[in-house]
Write a structure and sequence with these properties.
Number of domains: 3
Number of helices: 11
CATH class of the largest domain: Alpha Beta
Strand content: 15-25%
Shape: rod-shaped
Distance between the termini: 121 Å
Strand order of the largest sheet: 2-1-5-4-3
Structural class: alpha+beta
CATH topology of the largest domain: Beta-Lactamase
CATH architecture of the largest domain: 2-Layer Sandwich
Number of strands: 12
Helix content: 40-55%
Radius of gyration: 48 Å
């Protein structure tokens, strides 16, 4: 039919696919074809005269602006331009008149004052080198620009969300590491406490079996073995009580029995409690307490427990012949208790974790045992008294523990 005729006619225009445009133009009504192209185009097509008035506009473009083609015919193109873009469009048209074409983006106002964004290309129409009009094509980019603006608005939120996600991942990773470390320390604690429990139990069972199996054992040896069993039993009971006390403190089931007490007398009780052990290790103990009475509100027995634990550490980690000093300072509103030793000290890397539950200083070069909960217990007691505890230490130079407690107001 028509396409077959066009093909047949075109085949006669020349050889080697060379097409004579002049002959091809004669095959049809190109004005009608051109206007037909206007009607089927899905974009804005328009032709302006030399004064800028609309000669013709396609049906789709007119409908997009809520006009009919008849309503827009003769209307000046600048009447459709948003006033904020008037200067831009004038400059773009002048550029087209100078360079034959121009490309710009501007907002067009429809019949009902709604603003739409268009990308517009214009080209001059000339006759005998004289511009007699302009041919324009416009693409509605309103939705595209809206989405781009929304994307711009969303980008900071996206960056913030990514940052928060990154922080949350880091926090989760840190929490996992902390949980893994806690589980590891709990496992080590169970292992340590099991060892601490087995040691006195082994002595108790061993010496008890020895006594039971030898009815002819000398009285002196039997008494010595009974004393060992008694001491190991007390050690075992103390260890169990320490574990139970720590558990009760963490669950808030321990209430302090506070009363007004003389901390100077408490320090003398502390030294008396540990005198035999100090002497057995040939340690030199010095006390600096130049006051007869310093009153504080405290649970005397719990506080003595905590100080006993600190003194035991100083004795345990001091070499025979070492020195231990206990200092009592009477400050303005506080009393300061310092227990210092010349023992093996604590590595700097371990200092931040000393009050952490289940933490135990790793000492490969030492066979001194421990459950890793003594300082945790001390910290809990001091905290319950609303006090402060601080530890300073250097390997092979010794350790100093400082405790500050509020003094009692005199009546």
């Amino acid at each position: 039919m028509m396409f077959e005729q066009l093909t047949e006619e075109s085949s006669n225009l020349g050889s080697n696919n060379d097409v004579d445009l002049e002959k091809l133009l004669k095959l049809g009504d190109w004005k009608g074809l051109f206007l037909g192209l206007f009607d089927i185009a899905r974009e804005l097509f328009f032709v302006l005269d030399e004064n800028g008035s609309i000669i013709t506009i396609n049906q789709f473009g007119a409908s997009a602006l809520d006009y009919t083609t008849q309503e827009l015919a003769g209307k000046h193109f600048m009447d459709l331009i948003d006033p904020v873009h008037t200067q831009l469009v004038n400059a773009s048209i002048n550029l087209a008149l100078k360079n034959d074409d121009s490309f710009f983006e501007a907002s067009l106002v429809n019949k009902f004052e709604k603003v739409n964004r268009y990308q517009i290309s214009i080209r001059t129409i000339k006759k005998d080198e004289v511009v007699i009009g302009l041919l324009g094509v416009g693409k509605d980019v309103t939705m595209q620009r809206k989405l781009e603006n929304e994307l711009i608005d969303l980008r900071p939120k996206l960056v913030e969300a990514e940052r928060l996600i990154s922080l949350e991942r880091a926090r989760s990773s840190h929490q996992k590491m902390m949980l893994d470390e806690l589980n590891k320390m709990k496992s080590e604690f169970v292992s340590n406490i099991s060892h601490e429990l087995r040691t006195p139990l082994a002595s108790i069972v061993g010496f008890s079996e020895t006594i039971a199996s030898d009815p002819n054992m000398p009285v002196e040896m039997r008494n010595e073995f009974n004393l060992i069993i008694l001491n190991e039993g007390k050690r075992l009971a103390k260890l169990i009580n320490d574990v139970l006390d720590l558990s009760r403190m963490e669950t808030g089931r321990i209430a302090l029995n506070k009363s007004k007490m003389n901390v100077v007398k408490l320090i003398h009780r502390l030294i008396d409690n540990n005198r035999d052990l100090i002497d057995s290790r040939n340690l030199i103990l010095t006390l600096e307490a130049p006051y007869d009475e310093i009153l504080i509100e405290a649970d005397e027995e719990r506080l003595l427990q905590a100080l006993d634990s600190l003194m035991e550490n100083s004795i345990k980690f001091s070499k025979d012949g070492g020195r231990i000093k206990v200092i009592l300072n009477n400050l303005y509103k506080e009393v300061e208790i310092v227990i210092s030793d010349t023992g093996i000290g604590i590595p700097e890397k371990d200092l931040p974790y000393l009050f952490q539950k289940f933490y135990r200083v790793n000492r490969p070069d030492s066979d001194i045992s421990g459950a890793g909960m003594g300082l945790v217990f001390v910290k809990q007691i001091v905290d319950l008294h609303k006090g402060l505890i601080n530890i300073q230490s250097e390997p092979n130079k010794g350790t100093s523990v400082l405790i500050k407690l509020l003094k009692s107001n005199r009546d």
